[in-house]
Amino acid sequence: TAFAKKYVTILHIEKDSVFRLCQIDRNFVNNFLTLVCEENKRYVYSYQLIELENQKAKVNTDKQKDKIIIEVKKAYLDIEIAEKNIDLNRKNLEYAQENFKMAQLRYKEGITTSLELMSAEIALQQVQSKYIQSLNDYDVAVLQLIYSTGGKIE
């Protein structure tokens, strides 16, 4: 009937009894169901966005872990290089000091010129500077390792 096509009967079933609660316009019901479906699509869409954000966060976390590992390894290698540079520059410093002493003795004996003495002195100063720089590089590398591992720098 036309009435049956236009209205939907809402029934309430409780144990053995059936009650007709009301009749609602079928267009209203369809519109309501459409609204519920659209709302569910939004929930599904929101869930998918949340999942994508979670995946993105996991990727970022993994990248950050990799970055920290690389940073720690680099800091450790920088320490090893700085230690080798200290040893090398210490040996160069000993050689430059010895060379300067020899140049002073030769100059006092009149065997060499003041130019050779000054050259030996300049070479000594340059090697001293490199040695001090290698000590500073070591300190920086140690501090970088401490920082990379999350330690406090005091």
The spatial strand order of the largest sheet comes to: 1-2
| Average pLDDT level | 79
Distance between the termini: 88 Å
In this structure, how is the largest beta sheet organized? Answer: 2 strands, antiparallel
Beta fraction of the residues? Answer: 5-15%
Regions with little confidence, pLDDT below 50 for 5+ residues = 1-13, 17-23
- Shape type: rod-shaped
Given the helix and strand composition, which structural class is it? mainly alpha
Order of helices and strands: HEEHH
Radius of gyration from the CA trace? 42 Å
| Oligomeric assembly | single chain
Task: Describe the protein's architecture and organization.
This protein has 154 residues and is mainly alpha-helical. The chain has helices at 2-6, 26-108, 114-148; strands at 7-14, 17-25. A two-stranded antiparallel sheet has the order 1-2. A hairpin with a 2-residue loop joins strand 1 and strand 2. Helix 2 runs antiparallel to helix 3. Residues 1-13 and 17-23 have low confidence and may be disordered.
